[in-house]
Structures are given as C-alpha cells and as structure tokens.
Amino acid sequence: MKRLRNRGEVPKNIYSKICKNPACAVSFECFHGNRGFCSDRCKRNYERDLKKAARDMSKRMERLMNRSAAVFEEYLKSGKTKITVNEMKQRNIDSNVFTARLKSLNGEIIYVFGEYVLHKIAEVEYYITKTQ
Ligand SMILES: [Zn+2]
C-alpha cells in the first residue's frame, strides 16, 4: 500500500475521513466508507462520553424538577394556590423544565411538573394543583 501511494496511485476505495469523536477529530484513512472512528478505542471513548453527558443532563433535569416541586409544595402547604411568573423567577424555577405542556378542549394550558400541575389563569399567573 505504501509503494502504491508513493507512486501516486491511491486505490479508489480508500476513504479519508475525520474521526466522529469530537475530542479526537483526527483525519484517518480507511477502506470502508461506513467506518466513522479512527479506532475502536476512540469509538468506545466517544460512546462512554455520550452516556456520561446524558446521565449528567438527566441529573440536572431532576435537580431542576425537584427544586420546582419543592416550591410548589411550599406554596400549597402555606395555603397559596397561585404563583406568578415573577415569583417563579425569584425562586429560580426554570419554566422551560417541565414534564408536559397540555392544552385542554376549552383552550386551558397546563404545565406538568412531576406531580404538580400549573394551570395558566392569566398571562403571568398560574394556579397550582397537585395530582392524586
Ligand atoms: Zn479518533
């Protein structure tokens, strides 16, 4: 193979690729177009990093959900049934992190945060309920 290349006769079935592992990203040559990684080890490292990133993201989501749930729980225990967008901001509730956003037939929009449900009653105000 080396001799062929020295004569400038690179076989057509050699692909020059960039490793799919962004932490590596070296360019490499391979004989099969479907190979995406420079080595098996690099592929394993990439898959391990992906799994870890997914785990970290899940943990982060769980923390944010638990923080929101704790605030809603506190509100309901103290007899408050409404929360405003400003109050949520002050309590660091990330309003983008919810389990589901649903719209009922009569147009009511609800946001589900685990076992807590926020019913939109005004542009900046929500009514809090707990399922069960
Ligand atoms: Zn690589």
- The pLDDT mean sits at 87
Number of helices: 3
What percentage of amino acids are in beta strands? Answer: 25-35%
How far is the N terminus from the C terminus?
Answer: 70 Å
Attached small molecules? zinc ion
Shape: elongated
Write the topology of this structure.
Layout: H1 2-6, E1 15-18, E2 27-30, H2 40-77, E3 82-84, H3 85-90, E4 100-103, E5 109-113, E6 116-122, E7 125-130
Antiparallel strand pairs: 1-2, 3-7, 4-5, 5-6, 6-7
The structure holds zinc ion.
Structure description:
By secondary structure, this protein is an alpha+beta fold. The protein is built from three helices and seven strands, in the order αββαβαββββ. It is elongated, with a radius of gyration of 26 Å.
Summarize this entry quickly:
By secondary structure, this protein is α+β, with helices and mostly antiparallel strands. It contains three helices and seven strands.
